[in-house]
Amino acid sequence: MTDLKPADALKQHWTDALPRTWKPFAQLSRLDRPIGWQLLLLPCLMGIAVARTGYGFYWEDARFALAFLLGAIAMRGAGCTHNDILDRDIDAKVERTRLRPLPSGAVSLKHAWAWLIAQCLVGLIALLMLPTMAQIVSLIAIPLVALYPLMKRITWWPQAWLGIVFSWGALVGGAASSYQTGVVPLEAFALYAGCIAWTIGYDTIYALQDREDDALIGVRSTARLFAGQWRTWTTVFYIAALVLWTAAAAAGGAGPIVATALALIGALLIWPMLASVDDTRPETALAAFKHNAIIGAAVLLGFALEPIWRTLRPMLGV
Fold first, then answer.
1. CA–CA separation, 244 vs 242, rounded Å?
2. Nearest Cα to 207, choosing from 192, 221, 218?
3. Rounded distance between C-alpha atoms, residue 206 and residue 168, angstroms
4. Tens digits of residue pLDDT in 225-239
C-alpha cells in the first residue's frame, strides 16, 4: 500500500490522521476533497430557502438541513465509489487519477463494492429523516445517478447529466419544505434549472484539467467540445444560472434584494473566477472550480435573506 495521494487531493486534511488501512476508503469517497459534497449540499439548502420565501424558516428545517448534510456526504461518497468502480481502467491511464485507490491497487474491487453499500445505508438513514414526498423525489434520481459514469463514453455532454443529478437536491429541498401541500413548488423547478446551468459551468472548468488525457483515451466532455471557445460557453451557462435563479426568487415572491444580490455575485465572484482560469495551467482550473463553493454559499445567502428577515422580525418586535 502507498501513502501517495491522487494529484487533485488536498495536501493536508483530517483524513491524514486515519489508520493506514482506512485512508484508501476515505479517498474512494473523496472525503479529502470536500468541495464535491459541498456542491451537492448547496442546491438542497437553496431549495429550502426558496420554498420558505414569504414564510420564514421553521424548526423542522434544521432537521431537513441535517439530513441533507448527512445525505450529501454519504451519497457523494457512494457516487464517487461507483464512478471509480466503473472507471477503474480509464483512471489508470489518466495522470491525475492513476493513484486513486482502485487503479493503484490500494482497495480491491470486492471491498469497493462493500464500501459502496455501506455508504448507501448511511444515505438511507438520511432519507428516512425527510418527509414522504421528499423521499419519493429523492428516489426518482437513483437511476439517473447510476447512469452518470457512462455518459462520458456516449455523449459530449456528461457535464449536463452531472447537472441533472447533482442539482436534484433543489427539488428535494423544495419538496421537503412544501410537504404539507403535496406539491413541489414552481420556484423549485426554476432553481433546479439554474443549478443545472451552474453545474455545467463549473464542471466544464474542472474538465479543463483532463482535456489532453481525455482526448488520448476517447473520453468526452464539454471542455473538449467547446475547445478554444470554452470561456465563452462557460460564461453563457453562468449567466443562464443567474437568470434562472432570479426567476426562482421572483416566483417565490422575493423582492428586488435577491435579484440585486445575484447581480453582485455575478460581478464580484463569478466574473473574476472565470477571468482567473488559464487553460494551459491545470492548477488555475482546479482553483476556480473550488471557488464555486463560495459562489454557491453566496447564492444560498441571497435566497435566505428574505426568510431570515421574516423569521427574526417577530423576535425584534418590528
1. 6
2. 221
3. 20
4. 999 999 999 999 999
